[in-house]
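Here is one chain, start to finish.
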Amino acid sequence: MDARAYLTRCMPTRKQVDDFVNPVPGLAPEHSNNGWTFDPELGWVLKDSVRFDGLDGSRTFYHYEPTGARRRLQFPDSPCRIHTYGDSFTHCDQVSDGETWQEYLAAHLGEPIENYGVGGYSVYQAFLRMRRVETARPADYVILNVWCDDSFRNLDSWRTIRFGRRAACGFPLPHLRVDPDAGLCEEVPDPTPTVDDVYKLLDPDWVCDTFAEDPILRCILAGQSREVSAEDIPVAFGVPHAVMMGDHQAYEAARAVARAALYSTRRVIEMAEELVLGRGRKLMVVLSHSHGILWQALEGRPYWDRALVDYLAAKPYPVLDLRDAHLADFRCFNLSAEAYLKRFLIGHYSPAGNFFTAMALKSALVDWLHPRAPAYA
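Its structure:
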């Protein structure tokens, strides 16, 4: 498949763009693009919605504060000193407002925790939202949650290119272009910064002119066919053509993207350090993972992101890998890895999975906060 054919398949319908950029006033929450809505700087943010994705087929209810944070049910009128940022595993997709790990932790600690997670975000988008919020109303304590796919999302200029299918958040976004060997990291704004620009996604000529040379697209196309020349394989992320060519080019393309993705997250973490630590505040990084990555860990497989884990091990601030918590818990059971994970995951974490996350983070937060949380004062 050539670039034009692939990109044409990625194009949204007019209704999908309408729902994303200009929801009909008064539209019922269950018919509002599942809450994803256009933002000119961040790509998208979330608005009140009802989804049909909860435990046992239940509805889930999502509401947001005037600040953009997910609704606080615990201590809603109290000052908040803890902000959390990340993707859907921070936002807590597939559970209602009171079932997030932030709300469970807040109830236990005796003080509020604000949730600025947004489904579909990259680490870079989470940082951009962090910068927006922390500039306007800074918190003393900031948690950045990095989910496994978020590193790859840093490199996406248009999310649907990598997914290859439509999604509620399948729109262009701010992203990074990196070269690990050269130590380069370029911040690239959203290629559709206005509503009119988003509608250009309906124009196949504009789409091809804008995205045909996208490195992620070129890697995808390179992996689909072995009958390509060196000129058709991107010099992506500093990997030479010689490495990308041959019978294993799909593997090498994936390896190149993974290496670049992990490098991009390192650079975003450095941005977060400058923003938070540079202003005299406290930072914590949490690594969370998909069902597949957790299953591999429980089966004793090597960590795909070992380079990032080793990089974070030297940091002077708290870093928590939820694989460690799950591994410790798993040893208490006589279960298969698959049966164990069903206790916590329904795609995202179920209410039980979010409670598990809250308890996995509890001790680190108790030691981190000064003065101590009311429950431990």
